Every structure is written in structure tokens, then in C-alpha cells.
Amino acid sequence: MRVVLAGAPGAGKGTQAKFIAKHYGIPQISTGDIFRANIAAQTELGKEAKRFMDAGDLVPDEVTIGIVRDRLAQDDARAGFLLDGFPRTVHQAVALNKTLSELGTPLDVVLELQIEDDEVVRRLSGRRTCRKCGHVWHVEFDPPAQEGVCDVCGSELFQRDDDLPETIRRRIEVYNEQTAPLVGFYTAAGLLRGITAQGPVDEITERAIETLKTAADD
Ligand code: AP5
Ligand code: MG
Q1: Residue 2 bears catalytic tag
Q2: Tens digit of each residue's pLDDT (9 = 90 or more) over 149-186
Q3: Is the pLDDT reported for residue 36 higher than 80?
Q4: How far is the CA of 123 from the centre of ligand 1 (A)?
Q5: Is 127 a catalytic residue?
Q6: Catalytic residue flag (residue 123)
Q7: Least enclosed by CB within 10 Å: which of 28, 80, 120, 171?
Q8: In-domain check, residue 149
Q9: How many domains does one find in the chain?
Q10: Residue in 18, 122, 160, 207 annotated catalytic
């Protein structure tokens, strides 16, 4: 299974990616997670990415495309992969097509998680992440037993720098301007499948896996 998980910020790509990747035994490749790991490790890449991420803007295509190309060439991606948060511009999508055609592994499906803007704001403003194990919580929709503490490993939770109200608004704008055109791009390629991403997490996972199964059989 070679799949792109698409959708607005906060649509639940990261949440669903964990379950889908586990179901298919494929790696989850999240450009946002790769950038955040580089920021934590204080690499040059991390320093450059942080400037754009903190403003809610996209990291430049030249940087992002190279990272994904290298990651897809690793052995564990040969049997399939789930891309989470990439591509985010038509330029990135064209570059992805080129890389995958060179590797002889074209995409099977692009699954779009569809969500309303109001729900995006609710989800992102309440998101909390564990500093140690990376588990993602939500203060209202999926709260840990003790506020600010991870149930999985007992460590401290933090709020992402880009989950502040002004930055959330900017990320939604950037999504509508630069990323939403991918819906037309992948519809034209016959690859797009959309599902509603509102409601309980497990119901969305079921819908996602059912849709991927049908798409792969087509
Ligand atoms: P990235 O990390 O990809 O952020 P994003 O697309 O803005 O998406 P999020 O991670 O915020 O949301 P998500 O859809 O994963 O939702 P989640 O599952 O966490 O990118 C960050 C930045 O990096 C970008 O702004 C850009 O600067 C840069 N970047 C990354 N990729 C790039 C690229 N390709 N090109 C250029 N720049 C790039 O869920 C959100 C919350 O909702 C959680 O708290 C969760 O618990 C809760 N939740 C999930 N599902 C449900 C549900 N069904 N009901 C209720 N709550 C739910
Ligand atoms: Mg995410």
C-alpha cells in the first residue's frame, strides 16, 4: 500500500496515520514530524524549518522534496509507505510523481480527511503532545487522566508552538491557498478518495481502511 494522507491542519492525519500504518505494516512518513525532530536536535535543517513553521508558513519546496526523496529510498519504504503532510503544494506532488516513477512504485491512493474550519481550530487549540513519547492528546476530546501529564509514560505534555490562535489561522490560509489545489490534481489523476474526518477516532479509522481497501482493488 502506497498512500498519501491529505487534509487540512488538524484533520487528524497524525492520529489516523498511526492506525493505518500499523494495519498495513508500513512506515508513516510525516514531514512535520521530521522537521520537529530536527528542531529538537538543533540541526541546521531544524533551525531553517523552525522559522517557517513558527510563522505557519510552508518550509520551501527545495528543502522538503529532498528530504522525502531520501526517506522514500530507504529499505523500509520499498514495501509501501504512508505519507502524512506531504505533498503540500502542486510542485511537491509533481516531484513525488517523478521520484516514485524512478523507483517504479507509483501511488495507489490519496486519502483526504475532510473537516470543517471551526473543528480545525477546536482540535489544534486543544492539542497537547508528550515531550517524551510523542503521544498526542486533546484537552477536551481525548484528555489524559491528570491534566498536563501523559498517561502512557508519565511525562510532561506541551503545546506545539504553531498551535497558537494566530498561527492556526495562518496555517488554514496557507492550506487553502497552496495545498487545497492538490484535490483537483489528484482527482484528475483518478487517485483521490475523500472521507469525513469528524466523529469518533475509531469510526474514522474503519472508514479509512475500508476506503483504502476498495481503492486498492480498483
Ligand atoms: P504538520 O506537522 O504536518 O502539521 P499540519 O498539517 O498542520 O497538521 P497537524 O499535525 O497540525 O494535524 P493532524 O492532521 O496531524 O492532526 P492530529 O492527528 O495531530 O506540519 C507542521 C508544519 O511543518 C507546517 O505548517 C509547515 O511549516 C511544515 N511542513 C510540514 N510538511 C511540509 C511540507 N510537505 N511542505 C512544506 N512545509 C511542511 O489531530 C489534531 C488534534 O485533534 C489532536 O489533539 C487529536 O487528539 C485531535 N483529534 C484527532 N482526531 C480527532 C477526532 N476524530 N475527534 C476529536 N479530536 C480529534
Ligand atoms: Mg500531524
Answers
A1: no
A2: 999 999 999 999 999 999 999 999 999 999 999 999 99
A3: yes
A4: 10
A5: yes
A6: no
A7: 80
A8: no
A9: 1
A10: 160
